[in-house]
Design a protein that fits this description.
Helix content is 15%, strand content 36%. With 371 residues, the protein is an alpha+beta fold. The protein is globular.
């Protein structure tokens, strides 16, 4: 049997030495206060409304006598409208009023209202969103010549485990809330934290991130945004996750223009495979297939009408290399594919049973995948 194992890194205590000049000024103003003073005015609350229609039974037909009288089921249903409200956070990224947040905060909303720290509220327009990276850009127009406060975007590639992490947002409807922690690990994949359908490597932090924080900034000790708070696990014991800001930098301008972000795919469902897992499978007399006893990525399913199907990949194939680079995990293959362009050819070294093979696969646009 194949099992997935998630191992969380042990948090490293904050360094004992000061990390910035601001940190040395604890007596007058802490580095946290200085960082929040810099980024805080650019952090916004995002309130959403969405009207949905449900078909509800008329209560009169729930009466057993009437049910029998009218002959059982098939009672008429009356449509009922329900207003769903949501809340999240975001931060202003330029003087034109563009705001970066999570896609799940605003996707599908009929109305989006943005409230600034100074109390002003504006109806906002969702300019673009990308569900795969869970990022969105919304825009406000203050109608004035005042310069909007803008958050400074940092460099998430320079973030290290043990760095300070400050989460700013509006958790649980409590505006302008700040929590402090450290970066506890980097490159935590979306699959390992139980968020299917995403292609992300998160910054993991122990700074408290609660409902309503989604879309708000995770900042460093200098007040620079290093991530976008996005994920919460009820069983994570205070561990939160943020999308690295460099990922947002790659696509924010496309989202602001309303463009679709292209994500390549090949069309396979995959899992990690080790020699030990293969041996257990092969020792089971009820196993449906023989697995090569190697380290690689097992193809569990090939989706119809996809590049993988066209290339002849099959269930039970084990992918060993991509373009000459060894692949040891499903996440590694996913990242390799994500870093290609639509239409790029990938040379896969695979093993089918006891036979080594080479397969050429051309990536396609993820949204072309048939359901």
């Amino acid at each position: 049997m194949l099992t997935a194992v998630t191992v969380f890194a042990t948090a490293i205590a904050p360094p004992a030495y000061a990390q910035s000049p601001a940190a040395e000024a604890i007596g007058s103003e802490s580095f946290v206060a200085a960082a929040v003073r810099q980024v805080g005015p650019a952090v916004v609350r995002i309130d959403t409304e969405k009207t949905i229609t449900r078909q509800a039974r008329d209560p009169i037909y729930e009466d057993p006598f009437l049910r029998d009288f009218f002959g059982g089921g098939g009672f008429p249903r009356q449509p009922q409208e329900e207003l769903l409200r949501g809340q999240g956070s975001g931060f202003i990224i330029d003087n034109t009023g563009n705001i970066l947040t999570n896609a799940h905060v605003v996707n599908g909303a009929d109305r989006v209202v943005v409230t600034l720290k100074d109390g002003r509220s504006f109806d906002a327009v969702v300019e673009g969103f990308d569900e795969v990276t869970d990022l969105a850009v919304v825009k406000i127009d203050d109608g004035e010549d005042d310069v909007l406060p803008v958050a400074t975007l940092g460099d998430s590639d320079r973030v290290e485990v043990g760095d300070w992490a400050i989460a700013v947002g509006n958790p649980l409807g409590l505006d302008n809330t700040v929590t402090l922690g450290i970066v506890s690990t980097l490159k935590r994949t979306s699959s390992s934290v139980g968020i299917p359908g995403k292609r992300l490597e998160f910054i993991q932090t122990d700074a408290a991130i609660n409902p309503g924080n989604s879309g708000g900034p995770l900042v460093n000790q200098r007040g620079e945004v290093i991530g976008i708070n996005t994920a919460i696990r009820a069983d994570a014991m205070g561990i939160g996750f943020a999308i690295p800001i460099n990922k947002a930098k790659e696509i924010k301008d496309m989202l602001a223009r309303g463009e679709t972000v292209a994500h390549p795919y090949i069309g396979v469902q995959i899992a990690n495979l080790t020699p030990e897992q293969a041996k257990l499978n092969n020792a089971d007399i009820n196993s449906g297939m023989y697995l090569p006893e190697v380290n690689g990525v097992l193809v569990i399913r090939v989706l119809e009408g996809t590049p993988a199907a066209a290339a002849g990949l099959r269930r039970g194939d084990v992918i060993l290399q991509v373009n000459g680079t060894p692949i040891r995990s499903a996440d590694g293959l996913q990242i390799k594919v994500e870093n290609t362009k639509i239409g790029d050819a990938l040379e896969l070294q695979i093993q089918r049973g006891d036979r080594p093979m080479t397969v050429q696969v051309k990536t396609a646009e993820l949204r072309e995948q048939a359901e």
